[in-house]
Amino acid sequence: MSSLVIDSFIELPQAVLDVLDEGQPIFHRVIVDPSTPATAEDAQPTPTTTTTGSSSTLIITNVEKIHSSDHTSVYSAKLDLPNNDELADVVLKISNAGGPRNDALWREYQRYEDLAKFQGTVIPRCYGLFQAILAEEDEEEEPDVVSCLVLAYGGEASAVELNRNSREFSLSIIKALENLHDAGFTHGGLHPNNILNKQGTAVLIDLEFVRGDHKCDRAASVGTNGLESKTGDFGCSEIYSVARKMDLWKKSGPS
Ligand SMILES: [Zn+2]
Fold first, then answer.
1. Tell me: the pLDDT tens digits for 69-118?
2. Residues in domain Protein kinase (predicted)?
């Protein structure tokens, strides 16, 4: 259930292509047919429909590198959406590690699809995953790809330690987690770096480790009844542990 299918390509600025050092790869949108869940065995690399004309291309401008690690670079940028006068603030995650269906961005993109109903609230809107196939030397092997995940700008960085946010914002983080948990998902890697502050509301990112097999048995909402509790009693280790790191137990409520 891709939330936004308006095009087939993305056009990255020369500065990004230069960093990739892969010539002029063509970035096709990855299309996922929701009726046939892709697996490593049956997925074929990106048979996208090809359309022509400027309205079929997402154009990225104003890129600035935020940070990079071994295989992934993160940029802020502007996205020129067809039929939209204003440029959208976006974040690009670009990786060149792995094949079309086994790299980290592919996995993260799947989580954005799984969590489609939370896009724009608990998690950023996802504009899609785009991949450029670099070489097909051997039909038996998966070709190398460069992947580019395009996400809406999620917000400002949150405090560097979980216990340094305001209580109000901490509760917003818990609220976001509770929303995910009630839908059966855990974040799986919650850390200050993947919590953004959008005008006081928490937005969760870095969804690579999201799992969808959670049955939340938490005993209480931390916001309304944040009593000291042992993990076993509380019934949900992820929320308990995050609330503990935020010192929510100690500060909450009159005893
Ligand atoms: Zn839970």
1. 878 899 999 998 877 788 999 999 999 887 777 788 999 999 999 999 99
2. 60-255
Q: How far is CA 88 from the centre of its chain?
A: 17
The answer to whether residues 47 and 65 touch, using CB atoms and an 8 Å cutoff, is no
Run of H or E including 198:
strand 195-198
Give me ligand 1 centre to Cα 219, in Å: 10
User: What is the model's pTM?
Assistant: 0.81
Which residue range(s) make up the domain with 246? Answer: 156-251
Which comes out higher in pLDDT, residue 27 or 231? 27
| Strand 88-95 versus strand 72-80 pairing type | antiparallel
How many angstroms separate the first and last alpha carbons of the chain? 46
Spacing, Cα 155 to ligand 1 middle (Å): 25
Q: How far is the CA of 217 from the centre of ligand 1 (A)?
A: 6
Q: Are 124 and 183 within one domain?
A: no
Q: How far is the CA of 80 from the centre of ligand 1 (A)?
A: 38
Tell how far the Cα of 238 is from the centroid of ligand 1, in angstroms.
6
CA of 251 to the centre of ligand 1 (A): 21
